[in-house]
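This part of the workshop introduces the protein records we will be handling. To make this concrete, we reproduce a full record directly below:
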Amino acid sequence: MGTLSYAATVSIDGYVADSDGDFQWTAPDDAVFAAHLERIAGVSTEVLGRRTYELMGFWDTYPDSADSPAAEREFARHWRAIDKVVVSSTMTPERLTSERARIASAVSLVELQRIVERAEGAVEIFGPTTAAEAIRAGLIDDYHLFVVPRIVGGGLRALPDGVRLDLRLAGHRVFDGGVSYSRYRRR
């Protein structure tokens, strides 16, 4: 049986994208990228929305050649090995870039729990919209939050409004560039 996790890179004021939809400010430096690489090594399944899947499709076709940075090649290898559940009512199978991906028009909390029970490692929900219902239901075991020292003033929130959860700090690190990483576990 796996665990259910949620990872997000957020502004200090809690947004993953600003009010214009821009998230370029979340781009990791080498040290933060290495932390993401370490985190994703334990992920066996990703549950993500169509837009996030299309964005991450970059890693499905990333060149595995000596011309590419070693950390990026390793991330791409991990990404390609992960099973993916793309939650979308508009995506079509011919738009999938991974043989390990399948489309689900919706994933209920019951189905999400089945995915976690069948997983051999961590199941990660990627994207705040896709994760919102599981967060509200208190199903997330681990929260991986990378906080960028920036205030964006509005946009797409990392966590849904109205949620109250009691979490405990399970790990914390501050990177030279000012990004802080905190891992929280459900009590």
